[in-house]
Design brief:
single chain; about 100 residues; alpha+beta; four-stranded mixed β-sheet; 2 helices; 4 strands
Length: about 100
């Protein structure tokens, strides 16, 4: 999945995360994480973000996360949504890109 433009998903409300995605061609994944639970869960949040990127085939992107205590499934959903918006891809969530 190629990141074509800036996109975002989520909010800055409690128990949510705002995920911004920017193109980062040829520079790999760059994850900038701000979190109210960084000390306790920062490593797990980064692991989740990396897993979602790997699952969607994203190798070059800059992701900026502003976490307000979101649980893992919320983080995963917000990252997926932001990446799909940034790549202009409609995804069927069963591993197939609907846009070819």
């Amino acid at each position: 999945m190629e990141i074509k433009k800036e996109a975002a998903a989520g909010t800055l409300e409690s128990s949510d995360v705002l995920v911004q995605v920017l193109p980062n061609p040829g520079k790999g994944l760059d994850i900038d994480l701000e979190s109210v639970v960084l000390t306790t869960f920062g490593e797990q949040i980064r692991k989740t973000v990396n897993e979602v990127c790997k699952d969607l085939g994203v190798t070059d992107a800059r992701l900026i996360l502003k976490d307000k205590g979101a649980i893992d499934c919320v983080i995963r959903a917000r990252v997926q949504a932001a990446l799909c918006r940034a790549s202009e891809t409609k995804y069927n969530w069963e591993g197939e890109d609907k846009n070819g």
